[in-house]
Write a structure and sequence with these properties.
CATH architecture of the largest domain in chain A: 3-Layer(aba) Sandwich
Strand content of chain A: 15-25%
Strand order of the largest sheet of chain A: 4-3-2-1-5-6-7
Radius of gyration of chain A: 20 Å
Oligomer: homodimer
Number of helices of chain A: 17
Structural class of chain A: alpha/beta
Order of helices and strands of chain A: EHEHEHEHEHEHEHEHHHHEEEHHEHHHH
CATH topology of the largest domain in chain A: Rossmann fold
CATH class of the largest domain in chain A: Alpha Beta
């Protein structure tokens, strides 16, 4: 029996994880859950999965939940400290880190520092403080299992093969909803259209990241730290069908790859029960029905965000945290239709250009850069909003 | 330093193996070599690689070689006993079994019985006497490393993952040189055309097997015994580009695959130095330049030989040995233009229908079936030759 904590249980990864828990009651029990402010869903999850403790980021939402759960045997915490307490629950064996955005950094690091195994769906901890996370995990012998389909594919393609023989990691990218759109049209594309992902059903933020290819830029940064491989050995290929989830090239010319239908339950369950695979009852992969796989080089002119990801790694230190924060602000502004689609990259570029890079020696360094970049990006968004008004 | 023996050193796999030995002189030494009757090439290999002993199947060729190598420190043996003695050389750590056709069975079994690790490029031992080979290897703790690109891909896709979680092996097939040819044209296709393989440079026999898809039928039989997986869990998909060399599907929906440019040195060197990978200096796999992968279901009407492979496994016992022998006779007759292309399957079908299946309890049982089937297939070839004359 494995006791799990889910940081971000009401999101897409969180609910998929709970689906797996429900399907394999002999393997898993829920020790703790956390959410942002979705009281209704968390309350429902408490009734179904009976965790010993939960936390909400929003203190007011936590108050509401306490009132609703009176008489139930569940502790209800709040704020970033509450989230971190859940991540450190003594009974927990594995913490699924599935909070969207930078808010996952502190509780995920808390889980690692408490010696918990971590299944990481949240890119930002590795993007904002990759070296620090990696060092803390190594110091405590903590295994970090990637949950992102690309990183899980790389992890699986490395299992059973010698690290020393690796030549290159190749991340696949779907190209997102705007892959075929001419630059001029991209200038005017509305969120509604940019939110139509061809293969994956995901949250709004990550779908826009997929449309800009920033998602892949962040994944390059994440891969660099998760697998301790320099950026020069990490490539990206556009594969529209999203069946090959990523590949690892070895020095004898062999390339190992993991494939599958787009279903997040595969990488989630692998991270949860590694090295065992759970019988998820999916239909077999029918390659003949799929018919073909296509491959394209990424287009850096229409999708500058991928290059910004590589650039942030090259500059290092606080620069990836800056990239990430500026992107969050810019995407939020785009979703509110305050800036245009192409402005997202421009806001990030402007923020990075203005940033005074420092080393990330402590968590505070990353959080400082994050705060600074949010403010700067906000200014740049406002300038663009005024400009276009 | 690993001492190797190559059974079939003058063929395509044999010379590729020696290329690797030449490239990595600190890793490998040649203990012994064998060939059929190619005295010139074997003599050259003796001078370059200085094996302690060699053997030729053909006693007359061995005489010639002895005369030419007078004064050199090399023992020269002959016949099937000579080949088996080379396979058992005390100094040998690894035996590369690369003889084409059924002639490889006896010396390969001799290598296993002498406790040598075996790199198996020769399908026939597993096809003719798979259960026996598997049992002998298990009894002696001998590891058999597949060299066929498909089986090597499956082997590599199983490394690091739990056997219990395997759902299906998926062998890829190029479809061979006649994949797009209508049935009526296939009736009249000349060997010259059938020998034009789109992706791989191989010997004549195996290229015709690729054109009939019998190659894949034999590989299904081989996979069944190499990996101890029932035929019902082995699938075949036509993948014209031959970049994905094969795949393994697991019960969580994950499919692991091995990819690479068509270069036999990759699977050969992996089998030679497992689990280490040798830096072969190949160009990186450029998926964008390749552009696309296509997948098709095999066409059993135009390519009945694949189904015959499955059928032979289902009938079991001596039936796969019968299939294999009849195929060798039919392909030889086709290459000599004594029968037409579509007659190959008809001759095999006729031989299998006439065969009284028995269990393969000993090597003799397999060899008996082989002899019987060659005779029977020969009769059927002659009947067809007369018929068409």
């Amino acid at each position: 029996m494995k006791y799990i904590v889910i940081l971000g249980s009401t999101g897409s990864i969180g609910t998929n994880t709970l689906d797996i828990v429900a399907k394999f009651p002999d393997q898993f029990r829920v020790a703790g859950l956390t959410a942002g402010s979705n009281v209704d869903k968390l309350e429902e999850q408490i009734r179904t999965f009976k965790p010993e403790a939960v936390a909400l980021s929003d203190p007011k939402a936590a108050e509401t939940l306490r009132a609703r759960c009176r008489g139930q045997a569940v502790r209800i915490l709040s704020g970033v400290e509450g989230l971190s307490d859940i991540a450190r629950l003594p009974r927990a064996d594995l913490v699924i880190s599935a909070i969207v955005g930078g808010a996952g950094l502190v509780p995920t690091l808390a889980a690692i520092q408490a010696g918990k195994q971590v299944a990481l769906a949240n890119k930002e901890p590795m993007v904002m403080a990759g070296r620090l996370m990696q060092e803390e995990a190594r110091k405590r012998g903590v295994k970090i299992f990637p949950v992102d389909s690309e990183h899980s594919a790389i992890f699986q393609s490395m299992e059973g093969h010698r690290r020393e023989d690796i030549q290159r990691l190749i991340l696949t990218a779907s190209g997102g909803p705007l892959w075929d759109m001419p630059l001029e049209e991209m200038r005017h594309v509305k969120p509604k259209q940019a939110l139509k992902h061809p293969n994956w059903k995901m949250g709004a933020k990550i779908t826009i990241d997929s449309a800009t290819l920033m998602n892949k830029g962040l994944e390059v940064v994440e891969a660099r730290w998760l697998f301790d491989i320099p950026a020069s050995q990490i490539g990206v290929i556009v594969h529209r069908e999203s069946i090959i989830h990523s590949l690892v090239e070895y020095r004898d010319g062999s390339v190992m790859a993991q494939l599958g239908l787009p279903d997040m339950r595969t990488p989630i369950s692998y991270a949860m029960q590694y090295p065992e695979r759970l019988p998820l009852g999916q239909p077999p992969l029918d390659l003949a029905a799929i018919g073909k796989f296509t491959f394209h080089r990424p287009d850096h002119e229409r999708f500058p965000c991928l290059g910004l990801g590589y650039e942030s790694l090259k500059l290092g230190g606080t620069m990836p945290a800056t990239l990430n924060a500026a992107n969050e602000v810019a995407v939020a502004a785009y979703l509110e239709e305050r800036i245009g689609f192409l402005d997202i990259a421009a806001v990030i570029r402007g923020t990075m250009d203005a940033h005074q890079r420092r080393e990330v020696a402590t968590l505070e360094d990353a959080l400082d850069a994050d705060r600074w970049a949010r403010e700067k990006a906000g200014e740049l968004v406002r300038a663009r909003t005024l400009h276009s008004a």
